[in-house]
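seq:
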Amino acid sequence: MTIRRYSRTTVFGLNRRYGTSEVILTLRNGLNNGNIRSDLYITKENERLDIIAGERYKDSTLWWLIASCSNIGWSLQVPSNTRLLIPYLEDVIKYVG
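struct:
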């Protein structure tokens, strides 16, 4: 039996796995129309998105939520003083599915 990279990845709405373009667009729409709340966070030196996600969500694999909502691309490492929008996970689950 093969273990796949995303085999234990939670499925969000639209029956898609993490990071699909449909979910990213839905997230951004939810932020723009006020259905998904977020906190503004300014990064410090040597901070990584997976570490921030682990602290905020208790799940470092959710780093892509922060990246997609912050419109910063797909890199775990970001420069200091980067403005991040950290979405409320409960709002994401309600809005996306």
